[in-house]
Design a protein that fits this description.
- The chain is an alpha/beta fold and about 260 residues long.
- About 25% of the residues lie in helices and about 30% in strands.
- The chain is built from six helices and 13 strands.
- It has helices at about 35-50, 65-75, 95-105, 125-135, 190-195, 240-250, and strands at about 1-5, 10, 20, 25, 30-35, 55-60, 80-85, 110-115, 140-150, 150-160, 160-170, 170-175, 200.
- A nine-stranded mixed beta sheet has the order 11-10-9-12-8-1-6-7-13, with helices on both faces. Strands 2-5 form a two-stranded antiparallel ribbon.
- The structure holds flavin-adenine dinucleotide (FAD).
- Flavin-adenine dinucleotide binds near residues 59, 123 and 127.
């Protein structure tokens, strides 16, 4: 089975993020594989192990994204592709990313493409569905279970705390939701092997794409951090007095009742 995983290098949102000149400052920031993409990689490896075939991880990014690709190879992916846009593009959006990925995939005869449900930085959840639309294949988002039997596929997807069962067929793109599996940590032998696995680097030229073909359709006007939260206040005294004071504060200070 020919399996591809879309992997995004993202900021670690558990770490402190600062904004300089309207952009998230890269200095001092930690970078990781988008956590939802780890579920996608794990699922791809499990599907390959059950059905034979090959797992290729793809990212669009700069040279620095090689680290995240090597991590995916150390987890067990077979090959990696870095589509380096650093020299060609100043601005990108979801259209740009999807168009480049679809252009790469269009003649690859992918049976299964896995992406994350959402990137924890950009957070649009658009890239997976857009790639499937451009390739003209079926897609199912936010999946928590995947069963493949020949070309038939049975999926359970998360729908706001409930679940939906869907039957579809390959070729297919799915986006991974938390709970799909438990992503493995790269083992030491896995890390050693990953150093020798193939990592292909491509530029727009190699995909016969001009900058105009992938020009962003949207423009980010401003990026800002959420406002600092004011310190909380703990009420003291007997419970009936606290309730009275709380109601009073909600009326006079918070003005919500
Ligand atoms: C090199 C680079 C330059 C950028 N420059 C700009 C800029 O100038 N202005 C701006 O506003 N934004 C910029 N971006 C951000 C970019 O527009 C979005 O991050 C991107 O379109 C994905 O949207 P999202 O983060 O909402 O992902 P989502 O759609 O939420 O991601 C869902 C899934 O799609 C896949 N995916 C997403 N992005 C990638 C990727 N890069 N490679 C492989 N798979 C992916 C992953 O599986 C991910 O889990 C840049 C991104 C990159 C990589």
């Amino acid at each position: 089975m020919n399996i591809y995983v879309l992997v995004k290098r993202t900021f670690d949102t558990e770490e402190k993020i600062t904004i300089t000149n309207g952009k998230i400052a890269e200095d001092g920031a930690e970078f990781i594989i988008n956590p939802y993409d780890e579920y996608a990689i794990e699922e791809a490896i499990q599907v390959r192990d059950a059905n034979d075939g090959e797992v290729t991880v793809i990212t669009i990014g700069g040279e620095d994204a090689e680290k995240q690709l090597r991590t995916a190879l150390a987890m067990g992916a077979d090959k990696a592709v870095l589509i380096n846009t650093e020299d060609d593009l100043d601005e990108m959006d979801e259209f740009t990313s999807a168009k480049i990925i679809a252009e790469y995939l269009k003649d690859k005869e992918a049976d299964l493409i896995l992406a994350g449900n959402v990137a924890i930085d950009g957070g649009s959840g658009q890239v997976g569905p857009r790639v499937a639309e451009l390739l003209g294949i079926n897609y199912v988002t936010t999946i928590t279970n995947l069963e493949i039997d020949g070309t038939s596929v049975k999926i359970i997807r998360d729908v706001e705390g409930d679940s939906e069962t869907i039957e579809t067929s390959l070729p297919l793109l799915v986006t991974a939701q938390q709970g799909l599996n438990e992503p493995r940590y790269p083992s030491l032998p896995g890390i050693m092997k990953a150093k020798k696995k193939p990592l292909e680097e491509l530029e727009l030229d190699d995909l016969d794409l001009e900058e105009d073909d992938v020009e962003a359709k949207t423009e980010t006007i401003e990026i800002y951090l959420p406002p600092q939260k004011a310190a909380g206040r703990v009420l003291e005294g007997d419970i009936p007095d606290q309730v009275k004071e709380l109601v009073n504060l909600l009326k006079t200070e918070a003005k919500v009742i």
